[in-house]
């Protein structure tokens, strides 16, 4: 087994060496070996990919779709994305110049951040937040500016945004994720529209991560790009809507000038997406536009049961209107030590959740529970939590 030459030990990319591994992954790995653990921490659908989508991918392999595609992705898929976004969200993007297919929403976000952020640039991130955003901004040499939204029901308000932009008038970008991971909060059209006048006063990009857009409850998803198209870059994909997390297929949409630059970054990062995944996504968006709805209905049942039972335990859950997470305030006797509570829960109740501090300081006295788990696992986990707390 080779050992790195000692003269090379300190010659890594400095921005990378200063980054910490994902706190979500780190905590999950720290409890993964507990015997009999029920995991209510996994951020992916508890369903299999629809059969017609799998068949399309298998046909793609049989048809020898095994070569490099254009950097932006195959034209039929870009056409399907354009149609899907138009039909679903009243967004109109030219498939030739305003859409780019990525290796998952993660790579789409990375390409977008690297396209916009120069060393020293400030990037606004409402908190709590998915930790990928902070890591990418720091790796690009940027400076994340966190906006604690806990006092405004985890929604960024125009007053909060104006206050931060007054202090940071040259901020390069705002990363806005909704429905939100970890809170499950979705924005209403009125809340989005209220942000527009503030954003229009500044030369600031908005990177809108809308990967959970098909999973909302009692509220229809609207994109900020509907009201602010010339400043907004939309990230989406089929991972959550069609239970395709393992196939890594996302897409970026925005003004042609942005996509032209981002496509260069994307090309250097991954060259092009996988052919079978692209043909699967083509089938999903063309002939499975509403595939998410049966899954969403099951998630809603899980959500309603989980909220009722958590309240019955004396806990304070944030009722989510999107995604498949519940953000829950930890019992007062644990103070703000959400990590200790999550560790105790795993060790003594055999239930795995994610400490809220994994999503920034704004989440430090919460835990995140995923109700995308199977009904049996969810019920078992909640029963164990109840017994533990009692």
Task: Tell me briefly what this model is.
By secondary structure, the chain is of the alpha/beta class. Helices cover 41% and strands 14% of the residues. The protein starts with 13 loop residues before the first helix and ends with a helix.
What are the key terms here?
13 helices, 7-stranded mixed beta sheet, 390 residues, Aspartate Aminotransferase, domain 2, Aspartate Aminotransferase, domain 1, 4-stranded antiparallel beta sheet, alpha/beta, 2 domains
Count of separate DSSP helical elements: 13
From the alpha carbons, calculate the radius of gyration and give it in angstroms: 21 Å
- Through-space gap between termini: 51 Å
Looking at CATH, the homologous superfamily of the largest domain is Type I PLP-dependent aspartate aminotransferase-like (Major domain)
Main sheet: strands, sense, barrel: 7 strands, mixed
Percentage of helical residues?
A: 40-55%
Structural class: alpha/beta
Number of individual domains: 2
Q: Please, what is the average pLDDT?
A: 96
The helix/strand order is: HHEHHEHEHEHEHEEEHHHEEHEEEH
Q: Per CATH, which architecture of the largest domain? A: 3-Layer(aba) Sandwich
General shape: globular
| CATH class annotation of the largest domain | Alpha Beta
Strand order of the largest sheet: 2-8-7-6-5-3-4
- By CATH, the topology of the largest domain is Aspartate Aminotransferase, domain 2
Query: How many extended strands?
Result: 13
In terms of per-residue confidence, which ranges show pLDDT below 50 for 5 or more consecutive residues?
Answer: none
């Amino acid at each position: 087994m080779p050992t790195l030459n000692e003269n090379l030990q300190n010659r890594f990319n400095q921005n990378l060496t200063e980054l910490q591994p994902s706190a979500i992954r780190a905590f999950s790995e720290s409890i993964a070996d507990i015997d009999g653990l029920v995991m209510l921490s996994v951020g992916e659908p508890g369903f299999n990919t629809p059969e017609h989508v799998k068949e399309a991918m298998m046909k793609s392999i049989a048809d020898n779709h095994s070569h490099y595609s254009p950097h932006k992705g195959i034209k039929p898929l870009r056409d399907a994305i354009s149609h899907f976004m138009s039909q679903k969200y009243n967004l109109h993007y030219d498939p030739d110049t305003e859409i780019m297919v990525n290796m998952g929403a993660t790579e789409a976000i990375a390409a977008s951040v690297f396209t916009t952020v120069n060393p020293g640039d400030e990037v606004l991130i409402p908190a709590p937040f998915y930790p990928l955003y902070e890591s990418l901004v720091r790796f690009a040499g940027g400076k994340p500016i966190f906006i604690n939204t806990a006092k405004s029901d985890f929604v960024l308000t125009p007053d909060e945004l104006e206050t931060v932009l007054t202090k940071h008038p040259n901020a390069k970008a705002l990363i806005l994720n909704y429905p939100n991971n970890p809170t499950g909060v979705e924005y209403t059209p009125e809340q989005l529209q209220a942000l527009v006048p503030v954003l229009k006063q500044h030369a600031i990009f908005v990177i809108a991560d809308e990967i959970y857009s098909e999973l909302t409850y009692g509220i229809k998803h609207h994109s900020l790009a509907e009201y602010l198209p010339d400043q907004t870059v939309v990230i989406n994909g089929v991972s959550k809507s069609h239970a395709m997390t393992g196939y890594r297929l996302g897409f970026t949409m925005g003004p042609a000038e942005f996509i032209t630059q981002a496509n260069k970054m994307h090309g250097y990062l991954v060259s092009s997406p996988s052919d079978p995944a692209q043909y699967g996504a083509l089938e999903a968006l063309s002939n499975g536009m509403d595939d998410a709805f049966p899954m969403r209905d099951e998630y809603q049942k899980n959500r309603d049961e989980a909220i009722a039972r958590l309240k019955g335990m004396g806990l304070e859950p944030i009722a989510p209107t999107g995604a498949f997470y519940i953000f829950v305030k930890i019992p007062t006797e644990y103070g703000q030590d959400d990590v200790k509570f999550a560790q105790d829960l795993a060790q003594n109740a055999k239930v795995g959740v994610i400490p809220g501090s994994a999503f920034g300081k704004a989440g430090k006295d919460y835990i995140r529970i995923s109700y995308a788990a199977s009904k049996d696992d969810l019920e078992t986990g909640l029963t164990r939590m109840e017994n533990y707390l009692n």
